[in-house]
Write a structure and sequence with these properties.
Blueprint (H helix, E strand, L loop, with lengths): L2 E2 L5 E2 L1 E2 L2 E2 L4 E2 L17 E10 L9 E6 L8 E4 L3 E8 L34 E7 L4 E5 L7 H6 L4 E6 L8 E10 L14 H4 L8 E4 L2 E2 L2 E5 L4 E8 L6 E6 L4 E5 L2 E6 L5 E4 L4 E7 L7 E7 L7 E8 L29 E10 L2 E5 L13 E3 L3 E9 L5 E5 L4 E4 L6 E6 L1 E4 L4 E8 L3 E7 L2 H5 L3 E6 L1
Parallel strand pairs: 6-9, 8-12, 13-17, 16-24, 25-28, 27-35
Antiparallel strand pairs: 1-2, 3-4, 5-13, 6-7, 9-10, 11-12, 13-14, 14-15, 17-22, 18-21, 18-23, 19-20, 19-22, 23-24, 25-26, 28-33, 29-32, 29-34, 30-31, 30-33, 34-35
Length: 459
């Protein structure tokens, strides 16, 4: 069975559920979230599914799905509340359920082979942890060599940890970007293990979806309405620039953490694999006007319309307070850089050879960490990209300040995933306050499989 939404967008029946075209969160508490069992657990599974990616008469493509939907169901929890899952693996290969953007305990991170065993086909496990920070993140598989194919076939979804006091907005929408490499028959190309792709720029598809529907995703709200737009990229390797037209926009959170509100330069900002951005803006006050978000590839191709929000109905009164989110009180106001321990990570290789971190090509987790950090220690990671490809390095269990290259200042936001251009070095600073075994690895699963991975221990 297949259904069509208006225009060129599509909704797809995936196993047991209909994938939502958008998550409008305002006034819809609990919408599109899995039901809690009597014991407070959410039953959740990864299983084969189907998704219509090509126009009829093309057959639906074989995919994977969390909870019967692509993206997986929107998970919502209050800050400080315990998340409890009964997670089942219905795939024919190992998998895990991981939460890379949450600064939760190491036991609940879901990193297969490092923080927990990989879940075998047919097996299930209980997952329990407390999310300490409010914010918008993604959940993903993390099972080693299987990651690129599992994420590239649909295993990804959004999770929102809600603030105790919600900001005053009229439309709160979460949107997940994904791209798909589809052949002429509407099937997903099975090139996930191609070494040339893994050692190059990664796997990038020409079909871009927004919440499982073909872009552009169309939304509407009243003229003058204040909008909170949460954007996350589940594309495995796509590097894009999001351009905004029609509104004066402020970025109010990056990678799941509130930031000092700032205007994106030239009304555009880059988004890489695994990145999350939250924006706030007021809609135009003229009925019929709108705000548009487009993807710019930077390769000379035409902009791709991604989101279109129309102003419809009666105008909403002007707000006096500027948009912003409350500061996370659990993060340090300052980091003692003069006392920080420096840890160097050099990414090399690519092309005809596997990638390597500090001369070692990652295959599976080593017995010893790259660095052992005392709990509470201020730390600076120097991330050097000696390859010919952009690297997207992800810090687990922590968030970091991106340091300025010319002085000892830092950007007004926190990051857990950093894009590093070829031949460049980025420096990030954080306090190693979350004990456990944590990856420093590529957010591009193809690059992880090709060697970009290491781990450090906080104790």
């Amino acid at each position: 069975m297949q259904q069509r939404a208006s225009g060129q967008s599509r909704r797809a029946v995936l196993g047991s559920g209909l994938a939502a075209a958008a998550w409008g969160l305002s006034g819809r508490a609990g919408a599109d979230t899995p039901a809690l069992a009597a014991d407070g657990f959410v039953s959740f599974e990864a299983a084969p599914a189907q998704l219509q990616l090509g126009p009829p008469p093309a057959e639906a493509a074989a995919t994977f799905a969390y909870g019967g939907a692509i993206p997986g169901p929107l998970l919502k929890v209050r800050r400080g509340q315990e998340l409890k899952f009964k997670f089942a693996n219905r795939l024919a290969e190992p998998t895990t359920l991981s939460f890379p953007g949450l600064r939760a305990s190491n036991a609940g991170a879901g990193v297969g082979g490092l923080t927990q065993e990989r879940l075998k086909p047919g097996a299930s496990a209980e997952i329990r942890f407390v999310a300490p920070d409010a914010g918008f993140n993604l959940y993903l598989p993390h099972a080693g060599l299987y990651d690129a194919a599992q994420q590239g076939r649909g295993l990804f979804g959004p999770i929102i940890v809600e603030e105790a006091v919600k900001p005053d907005v009229d439309l709160d929408a979460a949107i997940v970007l994904s791209d798909w490499n589809v052949d002429a028959s509407g099937q997903i190309r099975d090139d996930f293990s191609d070494p040339a792709i893994g050692r190059g720029g990664g796997r990038r598809g020409s079909l871009v979806l927004a919440n499982g529907a073909a872009a552009p995703l169309k939304l509407s709200t009243r003229p003058g309405a204040r909008v909170r737009l949460r954007l996350g990229s589940a594309a495995t390797a796509r590097l894009a620039t999001i351009a905004i037209d029609g509104a004066k926009t402020l970025i109010v959170a990056v990678d799941g953490q509130p930031s000092e509100p700032f205007k994106p330069l030239n009304n555009q900002f880059p988004i890489g694999p695994g990145a999350r951005f939250e924006l706030m803006f007021d809609m135009p006050r003229d009925a019929g006007a709108g705000v548009r978000f487009s993807l710019r590839s930077g390769s000379g191709a035409a902009d791709l319309p991604f989101i279109a929000i129309a102003a419809e109905g009666e105008p909403i009164g002007l707000r006096s307070a500027p948009p912003r989110l409350p500061v996370n009180p659990l993060l340090p106001a300052e980091i003692a850089l003069e006392a920080a321990r420096r840890c160097d990570f050099v990414v090399s290789g690519g092309g005809s050879a596997p990638f390597a971190v500090n001369g070692v090509s990652f295959v599976d987790w080593s017995a010893k960490p790259a660095y052992l950090l005392p709990r509470g220690a201020p730390t600076v990671f120097a991330l050097a990209n000696k390859t010919a490809f952009v690297q997207a390095l992800r810090l687990w269990g922590h968030v970091a300040r991106l340091l300025h290259s010319m002085d000892d200042g830092w950007e007004p936001y926190w990051r857990d995933t950093v894009l590093i251009q070829p031949g460049r070095t980025a420096h990030i600073a954080f306090v190693a306050d979350n004990p456990g075994r944590w990856p420093l690895e590529s957010a591009i699963p193809e690059h992880r499989a090709a060697g970009v991975g290491a781990w450090f221990q906080v104790s």
